[in-house]
Write a structure and sequence with these properties.
The chain has 16 helices and no strands. It is mostly helical. The relative contact order is 0.08.
Length: about 350
């Protein structure tokens, strides 16, 4: 992050030297339109990311991949450059408190759209770098606000716009952290199972035997009895499937679209553990095998397609946070701030 800050200073110095090589009229025109051009380009990149961010789930053409890749890499750089140009222009002739209103908007751009937060899985591992970038860019935006503060209505509106800007940027950082390999694995690991308390079991066994009670292995017998019952149910279901084809069809051979979505989500909740290098139980494998064996090819591929869509949204977009209670609260706060800003403005 220190390297980025130093490179920004060197960029500003080089920009001055390059600008001095042009006539004064060109320099004046560039100084007047530099920030506007950067903001418009940043907004254009955000629009491209919104429309193409989710298209690569079902479109693997090269032009979509290249467009999305260039837009993803350029969006942050353009927004940071615009924010740096905004901070550099404060105090110079032509700057105003209305111009400073762009600072929280640029934070909103740095937060990125909901359709894409990472282009590859390696981007999720850089969540800490994005967090440091959040602190740095927030500090620059506060610096711009302080330099342009005039105790007017526009300055107050700038504060209102800071709320959705910080929320949006914070959402991106948080989602990248959730999708990183270590945190993604921890979210699916529950509390460790200590297993049976053998010491307590043996104490109870010895105390009851000392009292003259007849101790048997009734729990083991009950477990074996339950296993026999389960096997009996399994044989009954198999017999019903062989004698009644419609019974098997109800398990998944001809599912309609409304039934595919919940079925795919149930399998997604199970098999997403494979993306964290976790193993599945034998019961999970059995449920999956039985369903796909009883399903037609079209139904099976539709279920797999929806499953892959779920895992894509989880690893490459803000879906993990947006469809949660915390995400809903943050969205309500952001929308109320933006509506307030729009009405008052």
């Amino acid at each position: 992050m220190l390297g980025i800050f130093i490179s920004s200073l060197l960029f500003i110095e080089k920009r001055r030297r390059i600008a001095e090589a042009f006539p004064e009229r060109v320099q004046k025109l560039w100084n007047e339109w530099e920030l506007r051009v950067l903001v418009v380009v940043s907004l254009l990149l955000q629009v491209i990311l919104i429309f193409f961010g989710s298209r690569r789930k079902y479109n693997v053409s090269d032009w979509v991949q290249i467009t999305l890749w260039l837009s993803y890499l350029s969006a942050d750089a353009i927004a940071i450059t615009a924010l740096g140009a905004l901070s550099h222009s404060q105090g110079e002739p032509g700057s105003s408190e209305l111009t400073a209103l762009w600072a929280p908007f640029l934070l909103l751009h740095l937060g990125g759209p909901d359709t894409i937060t990472a282009y590859s899985l390696e981007d999720n591992e850089l969540w800490l770098r994005h967090f440091l970038g959040l602190l740095q860019q927030f500090g620059i935006a506060i610096y711009v606000l302080i330099r342009s503060w005039a105790y007017s209505r526009v300055s107050i509106l700038t504060v209102f716009m800071f709320i959705p800007g910080i929320v949006k940027y914070g959402e991106r950082t948080w989602v990248l952290r959730l999708a990183s390999k270590g945190n993604f694995r921890e979210t699916m690991l529950g509390s460790p199972d200590p297993g049976p308390n053998y010491a307590k079991f043996m104490n109870d066994y010895d105390s009851k035997q000392a009292k003259g009670s007849r101790v048997t292995v009734g729990r083991i017998e009950d477990f074996q009895l339950q296993m026999d019952v389960d096997n009996s149910h399994t044989r009954t279901e198999e017999a019903q499937q062989k004698s009644n084809p419609s019974y098997s069809a109800g398990n998944g051979s001809n599912l309609i679209d409304e039934e595919i979505l919940p079925k795919a989500y149930n399998f997604f909740e199970i098999f997403k553990r494979l993306f964290a290098d976790l193993i599945l139980s034998g019961d999970d494998w059995k449920k999956s095998r039985v369903f796909f064996q009883d399903s037609s090819s079209s139904t099976a591929f539709k279920v797999i397609e929806v499953e892959l869509g779920f895992i894509y949204d989880l690893l490459y977009s803000k879906a993990a946070l947006v469809y949660s209670l915390v995400g809903l609260i943050l969205r309500c706060i952001s929308i109320l701030s933006i509506i307030t800003l729009l009405v008052v403005f």
